[in-house]
Specification:
By secondary structure, the chain is mainly α. It has one domain. It contains 3 helices and 2 strands; from the N terminus they run αααββ. Helix 1 runs antiparallel to helix 2. The longest helix has 96 residues. The mean pLDDT is 78.
Length: 192
């Protein structure tokens, strides 16, 4: 009976050792899953950051192009204003120095001068004036909703009746591997 109890105690000690090993494996698996979740989240953040930078760069380019066009139009309008002011000053000077008879003759030539400048200026302003562009971000609501509802992944737990001493893995991944790339293994399980 003492021998039987000693054997039972040894079996219980073996179970305790196995439980300790399983606890250690669970801690290792939990740490690996947390690490994988962290890496995956960082990869998502990196992709999102790249997409954000792309949108920001596109906005900057579009804004710069719009501003460049408007500055060009502004320069053209400023030139036209200078031309009009010059014609107006010349016309005022001519009117101040002319007699009544010359004014009648000047009226026809001033009409022609003003008409030519005004038509030229008016056509350029009306044709070239660009409407102010507006920029908005069209948010990817589907991506946001999917991330909120589904998250970045999920945790699956399952029970396995296999143990390391009853398993074997074969394939190139067991002897040849490149860091950062997935390997394909052919697991073999032996049951008693």
């Amino acid at each position: 009976m003492i021998e039987s109890q000693k054997e039972n105690v040894e079996q219980q000690k073996n179970k305790i050792t196995i439980i300790d090993q399983i606890c250690f494996q669970i801690q290792e698996q939990a740490a690996a899953v947390k690490s994988n979740a962290q890496k995956f989240a960082e990869a998502l953040i990196c992709v999102i950051e790249e997409k954000k930078q792309k949108v920001c760069k596109e906005v900057e380019n579009q804004a710069a192009e719009s501003i460049r066009r408007l500055v060009t139009q502004k320069s053209g309008i400023e030139h036209q204003v200078q031309m009009k002011n010059t014609v107006i000053e010349k016309a005022e000077t001519l009117l101040e120095r002319s007699t009544s008879a010359e004014i009648v003759l000047l009226e026809k030539s001033l009409d022609a001068i003003f008409q030519g400048v005004m038509n030229d200026v008016g056509e350029r302003v009306n044709c070239d004036l660009e409407a102010a562009r507006r920029f908005i971000l069209v948010e990817n609501e589907t991506l946001m909703d999917k991330t909120i509802t589904e998250g970045i992944g999920s945790l699956e737990t399952f029970y396995s009746n296999t143990s390391a001493h009853q398993s074997r893995a074969e394939g190139k991944g067991t002897s040849e591997a490149i860091v950062g790339l997935k390997v394909h293994l052919n697991p073999k399980f032996f049951f008693r």
